[in-house]
Amino acid sequence: MIIYLLEFILSNLRQDFIEFAVSADVLRFGEFVTKAGRTSPYFFNAGIFCDGATLGRVAQFYARTLIDSGIEFDMLYGPAYKGITLASATAVALAGLGRNVPFAYNRKEAKDHGEGGTIVGAKLQGRVVIVDDVISAGTSVRESVDMIRAAGATPAAVVIALDRMERSGKDDALSANSAVQEVTQQYGMPVISIGNLNDLFDYISGAGADPQLLQHTAAVAAYRTRYGI
Strand pairing partners for 120? Predict the structure, then answer.
């Protein structure tokens, strides 16, 4: 009974997040070319979380997802650049929920004066959660893991906003796993997402969905069939 209740709560949280992302115009539908060169029927741009209200709201989703995951962690780390605001805002949201943890982030270029170095904020130590928007090629995660380990700390998990749940590679040579699955296998740590492609599809195709969203159902379904895991 408790497990079913938890699944229901998490499902509602994911659907609430998709609805929020659509209303904030962070999640858009149409035709978009991805970094991999694919024409995608949807696009998620976390850079649109660019005012106090929307950033504060998405931070609440990150914080609740992280707490509900049951992952043990001591601090947050935000990779430059989008991860910086997401990690700092999530730290504020966690404090509001009674979990005050330190956070740090990196510079793209090392500072040669003052305290120097590439890490800003709290000292990297203990179990560290990496906070980012999405995982595409996994480059940001790899760099983050290297920095965390170099400091003597332990990468504990990655938390992202949206898992696209699609396989990487060229159309004629698609990988067996998604970028998220590959990160999990390579580093032996979980990747937690607030929402994913299945949640997105359920939202736009569900009963009572906005007719303007329903018209994109077929395109999203076809894209998921072609590239999805």
Answer: 105
Q: Which residues pair with 78 in a beta bridge?
A: 105
> Sign of the C-alpha dihedral, residues 113, 117, 118, 123?
negative
Peptide bond into 42 cis (omega under 30): no
Yes or no: say if 125 and 158 are a contact pair by the CB < 8 Å rule.
no
Note whether 49 and 85 are within 8 A (CB).
yes
> How many angstroms separate the Cα of 52 from the Cα of each of 47, 49, 56, 66, 95?
13, 8, 6, 21, 17
pTM flag (> 0.85): yes
Residue whose token pair is 């939202």: 203
First to last CA, the chain: 29
CA–CA separation, 160 and 162 (whole Å): 6
Q: Report the run of H or E that residue 16 belongs to, with start and end.
A: helix 2-23
The residue type found at 217 is: T
Q: What is the pLDDT of residues 119-177, one digit of tens each?
A: 999 999 999 999 999 998 778 999 999 999 999 999 999 999 999 999 988 887 899 99
Separation CA 42–CA 27 (nearest Å): 7
Q: How many CB atoms lie within 10 A of CB 226?
A: 12
Instruction: Give me 34's structure tokens.
Output: 């991805």
| β-bridge mates for residue 77, sequence order | 104, 130
Per the listing, tokens 């709201």 go with: 57
**Active site amino acids:** 111, 113
